């Protein structure tokens, strides 16, 4: 289980237009927002990534870089990028499921075609959103076992304003006896 204030797992993936993404080389002034999504087959992901694309400039204004990553191959990732109009948002692809598991993501198996008529991969990861500090420590995380009820990006931007103003620390770090 990942815990805030501890090192994030290693993360390197190819991106569609920005070369290789390596979390250890990310140097935003505040944090990196890593959004793991299920893949092209997921209609909820398409809507969610459209919102992240729309909000990426707001994150950028606050010193937060963004990337959306799935285990889809390059072709499916490109289709998703086209679907969401990814202009500001980096799209990463080819996430190994072993790495997804290190990040605490749930893994699901295919149920065939989805409601939008696209075949699910044999195995794929469920969604998760993470804020990672430049020192590679986890600041905030949310992991879902379902595609529904994900963190709201507008609320996250509002929270970042509070975090910046108040130098608010990462919470949920205690791992001792209770």
UniProtKB/TrEMBL annotation:
Signal peptide: none annotated. Residues 2-165 form the Thioredoxin domain. It comes from the Bacteria. One of its GO terms (molecular function) is oxidoreductase activity. Pfam families: AhpC-TSA. This is Redoxin domain-containing protein. The lineage of its organism: Bacteria, Pseudomonadati, Pseudomonadota, Alphaproteobacteria, Hyphomicrobiales.
């Amino acid at each position: 289980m990942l815990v805030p204030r501890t090192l994030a797992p290693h993360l390197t993936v190819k991106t569609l237009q920005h070369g290789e993404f390596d979390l250890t080389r990310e140097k935003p002034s505040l944090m990196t927002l890593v959004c793991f999504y299920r893949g092209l087959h997921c209609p909820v992901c398409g809507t969610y990534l459209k919102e992240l694309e729309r909000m990426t400039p707001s994150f950028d204004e606050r010193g937060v870089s963004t990337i959306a990553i799935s285990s889809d191959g390059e072709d499916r990732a490109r289709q998703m990028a086209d679907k969401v109009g990814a202009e500001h948002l980096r799209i990463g692809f080819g996430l190994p499921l072993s790495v997804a598991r290190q990040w605490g993501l749930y893994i699901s198996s295919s149920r065939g075609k989805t409601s939008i008529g696209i075949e699910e991969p044999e195995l794929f990861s469920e969604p998760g959103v993470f804020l990672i500090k430049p020192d590679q420590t986890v600041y905030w995380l949310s992991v879902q076992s379902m595609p529904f009820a994900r963190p709201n990006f507008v609320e996250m931007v509002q929270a970042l304003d509070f975090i910046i103003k108040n130098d608010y620390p990462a919470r949920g770090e205690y791992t001792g006896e209770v």
